[in-house]
């Protein structure tokens, strides 16, 4: 009786049979059968006959579809609001938008393929400058001329940029706005623009200073010598003292006579001391005299009050010459002391606060002007 040989090569065996009968199983049928068996096992493990598992998989598929639909809606809403924000030029609107859609900026930036970090920063900076320059054809032409080499370095043809701007200036402004945002992000992009706008303001101030200096060149070149100014300063002080003395000695003195003598002397003194080049100017340029000059307005306000108050305790008309001099010296030093205290603890702190407030106000106005320029460019 024939027996089954366990050690037979099934593949060779089937091949031998197949060689004799074309309808017989072939060696390749073994691999196909094994593939079917593996597929069946995988389907069993995946839950083909498990109704609960199939239901959970169906719910997961529905959830994924719903999540994808919500993401598409969020993307569409962002694109709509982003376009509106760029058109408005409102910086705060852009910042709020990036906070509302935190993942969108990464998507925008990931869509931009930069050669390296230097190219990204360079293109972002160029875009910020182009955004400011797009305010007028003249500014754009100047910007292109000044940045032609940098544009070429990062692989941008200046002629193409000029053509884009000429064809659609507003569209060009929106394009470079988006490009700069994508390259640098909102914070760095706005900081770069603020620095550029600040440099433009500083250039304007420098140009104005140069024009002012040029306008005053004649005055500087025609400034009198030290000896002439010293003589003029001393003479102006003498004229003032003489006018006061003459009015004081005149028995028929009145306000008109005082003004007729004092005002011309004071006007001459102001003109002479404006050069700040004589001996008296040098003397009064030290710190003590500068402090007295700063406190002069307070001195003007308090000296009459001090004199009238002291007069209540001293009858000047009944005093001798020495007593009158003592009274004058006492009133002078009392007025100086009070006026200096008023300046140091009242006038100076208020002036500093006003200057600080004014400086902040000017900065706010400058920022507002920059934002308006950006809005007009859009």
Description:
By secondary structure, the chain is mainly α. Among the domains are: 112-215, no CATH class; 225-276; 280-378, no CATH class. It is 81% helix and 0% strand. The relative contact order is 0.06. Residues 1-31 and 52-56 have low confidence and may be disordered.
Summarize the structure.
It is elongated, with a radius of gyration of 46 Å. The protein is 81% helix and 0% strand. It contains 18 helices and no strands.
Q: What is the SS-derived class?
A: mainly alpha
> Uncertain regions: pLDDT < 50 for 5+ in a row?
1-31, 52-56
Helix percent reads: over 70%
| Radius of gyration from CA coordinates | 46 Å
What share of the residues does DSSP label as strand, in percent? under 5%
Q: N-to-C SSE series?
A: HHHHHHHHHHHHHHHHHH
Number of strands: 0
The rounded distance between the terminal residues' Cα atoms is 100 Å
Q: What oligomeric state best describes the polypeptide chains here?
A: single chain
Shape: elongated
Mean pLDDT: 69
Number of helices: 18
Most strands sheet: none
Pfam family, one: Inj_translocase
Organism: Escherichia coli O157:H7
Keywords: Acyltransferase, Membrane, Transferase, Transmembrane, Transmembrane helix
Protein name: Acyltransferase
């Amino acid at each position: 009786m024939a027996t089954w040989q366990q050690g037979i090569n099934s593949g060779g065996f089937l091949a031998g049979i197949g060689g004799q009968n074309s309808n017989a199983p072939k060696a390749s049928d073994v691999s196909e059968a094994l593939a079917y068996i593996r597929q069946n096992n995988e389907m069993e493990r995946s839950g083909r006959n498990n109704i609960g598992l199939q239901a959970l998989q169906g719910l997961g598929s529905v959830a994924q579809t719903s999540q994808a639909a919500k993401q598409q809606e969020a993307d569409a809403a962002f694109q709509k609001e982003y376009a509106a924000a760029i058109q408005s030029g409102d910086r705060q609107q852009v910042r709020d938008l990036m906070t509302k859609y935190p993942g969108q900026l990464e998507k925008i930036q990931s869509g931009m393929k930069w050669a390296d970090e230097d190219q990204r920063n360079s293109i972002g900076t160029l875009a910020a400058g182009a955004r400011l320059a797009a305010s007028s054809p003249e500014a754009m032409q100047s910007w292109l001329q000044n940045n032609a080499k940098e544009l070429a370095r990062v692989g941008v043809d200046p002629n193409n940029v000029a053509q884009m701007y000429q064809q659609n200036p507003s569209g060009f402004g929106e394009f470079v706005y988006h490009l700069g945002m994508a390259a640098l992000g909102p914070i760095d992009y706005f900081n770069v623009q603020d620095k550029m706008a600040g440099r433009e303001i500083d250039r304007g101030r420098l140009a104005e200073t140069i024009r002012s200096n040029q306008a005053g060149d004649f005055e500087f070149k025609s400034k009198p010598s030290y000896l002439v100014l010293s003589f003029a300063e001393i003479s102006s002080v003498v004229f003032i003292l003489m006018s006061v003395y003459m009015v004081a000695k005149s028995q028929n003195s009145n306000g008109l006579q005082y003004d007729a003598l004092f005002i011309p002397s004071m006007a001459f003194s102001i003109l002479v001391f404006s050069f700040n080049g004589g001996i008296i100017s040098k003397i009064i340029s030290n710190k003590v005299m500068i402090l007295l000059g700063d406190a002069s307005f307070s001195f003007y306000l308090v000296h009459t009050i001090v004199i009238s108050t002291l007069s209540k305790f001293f009858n000047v008309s009944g005093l001798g010459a020495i007593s009158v001099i003592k009274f004058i010296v006492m009133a002078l030093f009392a007025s100086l002391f009070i006026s200096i205290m008023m300046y140091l603890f009242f006038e100076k702190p208020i002036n500093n606060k006003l200057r600080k407030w004014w400086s902040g106000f000017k900065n706010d106005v400058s920022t507002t002007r920059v934002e308006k320029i950006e809005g007009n460019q859009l």
